[in-house]
Amino acid sequence: MAQVCRHVAARGLFVIGAARSGTTILQNALNGADDIFLFGEPRFHLDAGDADFAARYNGMHRAWSNQENKSTYCPHLLEADGPWWAYLARLADTYRYVGSKIVINPAHAVAECGQLFDFHCRHFYTSRYIFTFRNPLDVLMSTRGLAQLTGGRVASHSEVLRGFFSVVQLYVRALRNLPHVHAVFHEAIDARVFDALGKALELRLDDAMDYYDRGKVRHYSLDDIPPDHRASAAEAMALYDDFRREAMTGFGLLQIEQNDGHLDAGHFTPLGRLSRRVNRFLDELAERDT
């Protein structure tokens, strides 16, 4: 596996985000390009590598009632079924970029973000990463609402917010330590975003914006949040707004060492200050759930 992944890594492309943050539509839009093939939630970092990947992956998407397309179907490219990396390598013979959409769900977000980072450093260090973010109020209500609708486990308000900001910290960690990392913001996506991504990937994404329909996106207000959780939701929104503003401007000086214990706040870069704020907010959320 390791040798195959090293061979494919420079052509790897991965979309990463918290649940309900725009990962699926971004994956669909990128898969609209002839030079891209992204699997939908194959969870390579948690896959044991059994030689029945296509059967398991296709079965998962059929169980979810997803119709077949590049985002939901693994074509039978091998003479017999095989492990996920064999399909990735085979697809790399045809496509310029291959990879997957990765969704971080609330239940195990903190641990999974660590596992994911270690896995991709080890096997896909030179790949391209696109993190997608959506304002945490909409993520919070959409995540809990979908679980209620489908009869799944409904994560607590604090748990959803912890999952969301764990992905923000994963992005900060990736930005500082991996060579090709980008971020997009679901509510701010427009043609210019895809022009920039296209330049970074050195290909055209002319039709990508056609996949986005603002009329289908539901938005929420603090009034929709139970009173006991409004303060943390408001704090999450304020932190997110600062994060989005700084990220869209562009974080600089990524390699200046930062220390959470700086006595002088003037020593912090915008990224260092944000990282410390996110860490503290995550600690506060963990305490509220104990």
Question: Could you characterize what this model shows?
Answer:
The chain is α/β, with parallel strands linked by helices. The protein is 47% helix and 11% strand. It is built from 10 helices and 5 strands. It has a 5-stranded parallel beta sheet, sandwiched between helices.
- Taken from the alpha-carbon principal axes, the silhouette is globular
Total beta-strand segments: 5
CATH class: Alpha Beta
Gyration radius over CA: 19 Å
| Average of pLDDT | 96
Q: Within the CATH hierarchy, at the fold level, what is the topology?
A: Rossmann fold
Second-tier CATH architecture: 3-Layer(aba) Sandwich
What is the CATH superfamily label?
A: P-loop containing nucleotide triphosphate hydrolases
Sketch the topology as an H/E string, one letter per element: HEHEHHEHEHHEHHH
The first-to-last residue Cα distance is 40 Å
Descriptors:
290 residues; alpha/beta; Rossmann fold; five-stranded parallel beta sheet; 10 helices; 5 strands; globular
Short description:
The protein is an alpha/beta fold and 290 residues long. It has ten helices and five strands; from the N terminus they run H-E-H-E-H-H-E-H-E-H-H-E-H-H-H.
Layout of helices and strands, plus pairs?
Elements: H1 2-8, E1 12-18, H2 23-31, E2 36-40, H3 53-63, H4 84-91, E3 97-104, H5 109-123, E4 128-133, H6 136-150, H7 157-177, E5 181-185, H8 191-201, H9 230-249, H10 270-288
Helix pairs in contact: 1-4, 5-7, 6-7, 7-10, 9-10
